[in-house]
């Protein structure tokens, strides 16, 4: 039985006061959430404040990105040991915004995935096709390529300490969610691909869906047999919406 997970990707949003309000709201609603792992991923600068705010809550902490190196002359970067030091347990790797806007290739995401594991952080490794790729019928080929780049560096056993997130690029921030059937089809493909290498790892691997998941559609998506939770952008910025998604995961 895989533990459901709901992770909030706050992206580049918030201020000291709004972040404090957001995390207080989430903390306050955690009472009924006992079997779902709930993670928030604030912008780097707010991580210490959120870490303090969740010190007596079951909410866990993640970062949105990290450097592939562990220290040194890499101006503007944040290293794995630093994230660990301030209380992160998870780190999002290879988000489509990093891939599309900051030139992160499959190879870059693979070495960041390795850096996360090396530092005792659990990667939430994002994969997904663009609309054009879906229309061309190459969704599975794209996802296989993204996963293979990572497997080449770290091997399938590394997935025992990681989470995958299927995020169709056309669904992110667009309000256009993949249908439960569309999402399930890709999740099943991912799990069977991993099962081809290691059945036990595939069975235990959590695969989140991301892309306009919200309070209204979460239950139906998470009810799919290979969807183990969600990576939430927009809806993670409102405590009530985020908590409703956590409640949906709790029920599934
Ligand atoms: P969204 O973003 O929920 O706003 O579509 C999801 C994500 O980018 O992780």
Summary tags:
8-stranded parallel beta barrel, 11 helices, binds 2-phosphoglycolic acid, alpha/beta, 8 strands, globular, TIM Barrel, 252 residues
Task: Give an overview of the whole structure.
The relative contact order is 0.16. The protein is globular, with a radius of gyration of 17 Å. Helix 7 packs parallel to helix 8. It has helices at 16-28, 47-53, 80-85, 96-101, 106-118, 131-135, 139-154, 180-195, 199-204, 218-222, 239-251, and strands at 5-9, 37-41, 60-63, 90-93, 122-127, 163-166, 207-210, 229-232. The protein is of the alpha/beta class and 252 residues long. It has an eight-stranded parallel barrel, surrounded by five helices. The mean pLDDT is 97. It has a single domain (5-251), classed as TIM Barrel (Alpha-Beta Barrel), CATH 3.20.20.70. The structure holds 2-phosphoglycolic acid. Residues 9, 167, 172-173, 210-213, 231-235 line the site of 2-phosphoglycolic acid (PGA).
List the helices and strands and how they pair.
Elements: E1 5-9, H1 16-28, E2 37-41, H2 47-53, E3 60-63, H3 80-85, E4 90-93, H4 96-101, H5 106-118, E5 122-127, H6 131-135, H7 139-154, E6 163-166, H8 180-195, H9 199-204, E7 207-210, H10 218-222, E8 229-232, H11 239-251
Parallel strand pairs: 1-2, 1-8, 2-3, 3-4, 4-5, 5-6, 6-7, 7-8
Residues 9, 167, 172-173, 210-213, 231-235 line the site of 2-phosphoglycolic acid.
- How much of the sequence lies in strands comes to 5-15%
Bound molecules: 2-phosphoglycolic acid
User: What average pLDDT do the residues reach?
Assistant: 97
- What is the helix fraction of residues, given as a range? 40-55%
CATH superfamily: Aldolase class I
Strand order of the largest sheet: 1-2-3-4-5-6-7-8
Tally the helices: what do you get? 11
**Rg from alpha-carbon coordinates:** 17 Å
């Amino acid at each position: 039985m895989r533990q459901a997970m709901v992770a909030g990707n706050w992206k580049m949003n918030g201020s000291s006061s709004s972040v404090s309000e957001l995390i207080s709201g989430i903390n306050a609603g955690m009472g009924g959430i006992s079997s779902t792992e709930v993670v928030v991923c604030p912008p780097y600068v707010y991580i210490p404040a959120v870490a303090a705010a969740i010190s007596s809550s079951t909410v866990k902490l993640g970062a949105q990105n990290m450097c592939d190196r562990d220290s040194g002359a890499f101006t503007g970067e944040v290293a794995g040991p630093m994230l660990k030091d301030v209380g992160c347990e998870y780190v999002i790797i290879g988000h489509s915004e990093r891939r599309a806007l900051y030139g992160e290739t499959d190879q870059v995401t693979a070495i960041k995935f390795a850096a996360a594991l090396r530092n005792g952080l659990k990667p939430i490794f994002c994969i997904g096709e663009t609309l054009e790729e879906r229309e061309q019928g190459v969704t599975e080929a794209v996802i296989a390529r993204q996963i293979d780049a990572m497997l080449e560096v770290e091997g399938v056993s590394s997935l025992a300490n990681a989470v995958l997130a299927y995020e169709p690029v056309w669904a992110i921030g667009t309000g256009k969610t993949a249908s439960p059937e569309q999402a399930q089809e890709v999740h099943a493909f991912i799990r069977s691909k991993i099962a081809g290498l290691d059945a036990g790892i595939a069975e235990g691997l959590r695969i989140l869906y991301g892309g306009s998941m919200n309070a209204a559609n979460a239950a139906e998506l998470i009810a799919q047999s290979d969807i183990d939770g969600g990576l939430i952008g927009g809806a993670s910025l409102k405590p009530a919406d985020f908590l409703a998604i956590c409640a949906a995961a709790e029920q599934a």
